[in-house]
Amino acid sequence: MNRHEEVVRILLGQGNVNAQGTEEHGRTPLTRAAVNGHEGVVKILLERNDVDPDTADKYYVMPLLWAAWGEHVGIMKILLERMRSIPTQLINITERHSCRPLGAGMQKW
Question: For residue 69, what is the domain's CATH number?
């Protein structure tokens, strides 16, 4: 277990924690973990029933797209296993930015 994972486990163990809380851009802890390539943290967060991998930020970008942009293939696989409605959600959300995970994974931002 690395330091990020240890910190997340300690914080989540404090009791009444909102693991779906957002910051100013509407990004959840799961989104931040996906953006930064913290696969272990993604796994820890998804162990919880209150963490939704289908949640988009205020720019309509889901954790899967962030993981694709960062070329975090392991995280993409984990998220795809947990997402409820992949085709509709990805088409509706990512068309607003003319970008889909496949295309994002093929270009570097």
Answer: 1.25.40.20
